[in-house]
UniProtKB/TrEMBL annotation:
Transmembrane segments: none annotated. Residues 35-193 form the N-acetyltransferase domain. It comes from the Bacteria. GO terms for molecular function: protein N-terminal-serine acetyltransferase activity; protein-N-terminal-alanine acetyltransferase activity. Keywords: Transferase. This is Protein N-acetyltransferase, RimJ/RimL family.
Length: 239
């Protein structure tokens, strides 16, 4: 995009013509080939999520999240009840279509319809879905709703800069690193320097094509292993 010069000789941003604020994400399912995302329902999903998260015996999956781990079911149920009522963050449960079980959840948050900006976060994937096709497809479905259905301009990913797996996931999924916000927040009694990543609407068509090519059944062998990496397929198509 080119910078414009106003009548005072000052550089200003490019025009956003006929902008209309986006709709907020609806509480409706998102269906893929391996997973379905449903609005969080504690009565429906609670037992599955408790069992799925219990597979993480060390509590490792909770280290960089602001909540958890939960030692008692009552505290977990109370958290799910509060999450289900929340509009921002807006929680979706990930259902594995092969088993029919809830295996994790993720959210839209910092929802800004007026500026067309939205973040994905609270990504809480149990060991049952970590490093799976379903975990990748869940992220694709979240992106597709934001850009294709709702017309947002910017999609954000933020994490503790010490969370190397999260930063690697952001890069793999097509996000661009934008910088470090030092001493941005505190959680669990410690500092967090926050790494920022984003995808813009202008980048989405190439990223979407990379996801769609990666998700094709032909990209997986008989044991479900990928033949080509997602990052390379995105890089080829985003230009």
């Amino acid at each position: 995009m080119t910078t414009r010069i106003n009548n005072l000789g000052q550089p200003i941003g490019w025009a956003v013509a006929d902008w209309t604020p986006c709709e907020r994400p609806p509480r409706t399912p998102m269906e893929g080939g391996t997973v379905r995302l449903e609005p969080l329902d504690p009565a429906k999903h609670g037992d599955d999520l408790w069992a799925a998260f219990a597979a993480d015996e060390s509590g490792r999956m909770w280290t960089y999240l602001p909540v958890g781990p939960y030692a008692e079911r009552a505290a977990f149920d109370a958290a799910l009840a509060a999450n289900a009522k929340s509009a921002d963050p807006l929680f979706f449960t990930v259902i594995d279509l092969a088993s029919g079980k809830a295996v994790g959840f993720c959210t839209y948050l910092r929802i800004d319809p007026g500026n067309g900006v939205i973040e994905v976060g609270f990504i809480t994937f149990s060991p049952l879905m970590q490093r799976s096709t379903g975990s990748t497809e869940a992220m694709y479905l979240m992106m597709a709703r934001v850009f294709d259905e709702l017309g947002y301009r910017r999609y954000e990913w933020k994490c503790d800069t010490l969370n190397a797996p999260s930063k690697a996931a952001a890069a793999r999924l097509g996000f661009t690193y934008e910088g470090l916000f030092r001493q941005a927040v505190m959680y669990k009694g410690r500092n967090r320097d926050t790494a920022w990543f984003s995808i813009l609407d202008s980048e989405w068509p190439g990223i979407r094509a990379g996801f769609q090519a990666w998700l094709e059944p032909a990209n997986f062998d008989g044991d479900g292993r990928q033949k080509r990496a997602l990052a390379s397929m995105i890089a080829e198509r985003r230009g």
